[in-house]
């Protein structure tokens, strides 16, 4: 009499393959979009985390492209129909009607996709809990296709130098620039880009460059926590002082500007220390 042995197909070794970052990146990227998913993808060393971050980043890049197309089209339509901030030549009635239909359709698609962001984010989180790096539906593999072709000349310090140059231009535009017209809107978009994109990316650039520098034979071992933590502490102090000793109606806004200024100073310091270490 022979006994049949039951063979069990090996499933994913969850405790070894899963990572907290790979699970939470989907929830993090729902409110933060490309920035959150992109930062996790850049700093991740765990393969499971990187795969999940890549999938989330592909989705949010597609959503970002749709957002730019939708609102860019709406802005262009407003300008060409005399409803914008410039005095452009208005379109003819048939073309304006067709444009209105296209803009309405774009906004409908954008609202549907934006709503689906929550759904697919929760699904991807559930899949990641069980060890699966789920591909978001209908998303092209942008990161996998183009990541190897994107090279920063000079490495990550280019991003830090870009912040050093760009930040004072934007802040100067906020305080000294015009408060109406196209230049004002450009300044507002620049400020949002500085706060939501370039500043976090510069922090990641410092981290990655410092990590690489510490693995080389250079005598300089940058402490990223100090370069990033010091502006945070200064901003917290500014928030407390603004609320206690001034009549400011927006201490949080004051603290944000102080943080940007302090981070600009530490970025300059980082670049100077890096250049000094090379010589």
Tell me about this structure.
With 279 residues, the protein is an all-alpha fold. The chain folds into 2 domains: 13-146, no CATH class; 151-279. Helix content is 75%, strand content 0%. It contains 9 helices and no strands. It is globular, with a radius of gyration of 24 Å. Mean pLDDT is 83; it is low at 1-12. Keywords: Acyltransferase, Membrane, Plasmid, Transferase, Transmembrane, Transmembrane helix. It comes from Haloferax mediterranei (strain ATCC 33500 / DSM 1411 / JCM 8866 / NBRC 14739 / NCIMB 2177 / R-4).
Question: Which terms summarize this structure?
Answer:
single chain, 279 residues, mainly alpha, 2 domains, disordered N terminus, acyltransferase activity
Oligomeric nature of the chains: single chain
Approximately how much beta-strand content do the residues carry? under 5%
Let me know the average pLDDT.
Answer: 83
Euclidean distance between termini CA atoms:
80 Å
Compute the number of helices.
Answer: 9
Shape: globular
Number of domains: 2
Query: For the CA atoms, what is the radius of gyration?
Result: 24 Å
Helix content: over 70%
Number of strands: 0
Are there runs of 5+ residues with pLDDT below 50, and where? Answer: 1-12
Order of helices and strands: HHHHHHHHH
Task: Briefly say what this structure is.
It is a multi-pass membrane protein. This protein has 279 residues and is mainly α. The protein has helices at 14-17, 20-43, 47-80, 93-129, 142-146, 157-176, 181-214, 224-245, 251-278.
Secondary structure layout plus pairing:
Blueprint (H helix, E strand, L loop, with lengths): L13 H4 L2 H24 L3 H34 L12 H37 L12 H5 L10 H20 L4 H34 L9 H22 L5 H28 L1
Helix pairs in contact: 2-3, 2-4, 2-7, 3-4, 6-7, 6-9, 7-9, 8-9
InterPro entries: Flag_MotA_CS (IPR000540), MamF_MmsF (IPR019109)
Subcellular location: Membrane
Pfam families: MamF_MmsF
